[in-house]
Amino acid sequence: MDERSDTVFWKRKSKKQDGQEATGSAAEGAVDTQEEVEEETDSEETGATAGAAKDEKAAEGDKDAKAEKSEKDQKAEKDDSDDAAKADEDADTDAEGTDESADEDADTAEDTEAADESEESDDAKADAKDEADAESDDEPAKAAATDDVFGDEGLGEPGVTGPDSSGITRVRSEGVFEFDGTKHEVVSNTWIVDTGDDGVIVIDPAHDAEAILKAVGDREIYLVACTNGYSPHIESAIKVAEEGDADIALHPREMRIWRRFHGAEHRPEIEVEGEGSFEIGDLRVDVIALPGTSPGSVGYYISSLGVVFSGDTLRRGEPGKVGDSVIDYSKQLASIGEALLSLPGDTRVLPDQGPSTTIAAENANFDSWV
């Protein structure tokens, strides 16, 4: 409420009554003149004059008494008039004070109402925020980037998706994966990561070398990085690397599986292990050990892009399998829980098959896998 200045009520003075200050001097002058006239009369009329003078004196006394009474009556009337004027002034003052008090009360009421409305508005905003926070906390799976171009459901059809805003392109290709005497038809993901200087990293080159090289285009291939030695992760590695004159990176414990598919003539140039890292172009790539589906399985984490390439260790909504088989489930869960789920919740998980997910979304699923 605005500050109000103190209000001063000025009292009005009462007006003077007409004839209010009249005295008995005029009556006294009239009596003196009468006495002088009576003293000049004949001595014979002395007795009568004396009697008349006596009567006149009595009359004079009556006149004086009347004059005095008149003066008292006038004074009383004056006092009554002053009292009435003062009462009027007091009534005006009280009325003005009442009006002022009423105005102040109205202002106070308006301010109180405005404060209440503001408080209610603040409470409503706080409640809305709490509800939004609660909804966010209760549904961590919503952290999965719904706008992620790689977040499509199912295994999908072969094709190329991207690049996305981080410069990542996905190439899906069909192939046959034979494991433990059983053949499996699969659709596998190959990831092409732009390094920011006209170069790329190719991760898990799968079944179609031509589709991969077409997606790379005129850019230079700096590295072909494999998450393990199974064919969906290495099948096109040699063709892609030779075309781009690039090195191949693989964990040393995957060499036996590699030789079964590619023979011993062409060995990977770079042996990667957990806790290692390398810089390519503008990117730093950290190697995460993920044993479980295979002894030398690894993941590639690029913090600047907020992504981790998890291979077959973690897929959307489930731990990955090798064909239809679980190899070492305890180790695989340990790799997921200790290595992957310790990453920031908004980190995107880009697996070897199926759509992308996030660390937060899979954190919510982890307890159901144990």
TrEMBL record:
One of its GO terms (molecular function) is hydrolase activity. Keywords: Hydrolase. The keyword Lipid biosynthesis does not apply. CDD domains: metallo-hydrolase-like_MBL-fold (cd06262). SMART domains: Lactamase_B. Residues 33-45, 89-122 have a biased composition (Acidic residues). Residues 187-353 form the Metallo-beta-lactamase domain. Transmembrane segments: none annotated. Residues 1-169 are annotated as: Disordered. It comes from the Bacteria. It holds the Pfam family Lactamase_B. InterPro entries: MBL_Glyoxalase_II, Metallo-B-lactamas, RibonucZ/Hydroxyglut_hydro. Residues 53-88 have a biased composition (Basic and acidic residues). This is Glyoxylase-like metal-dependent hydrolase (Beta-lactamase superfamily II).
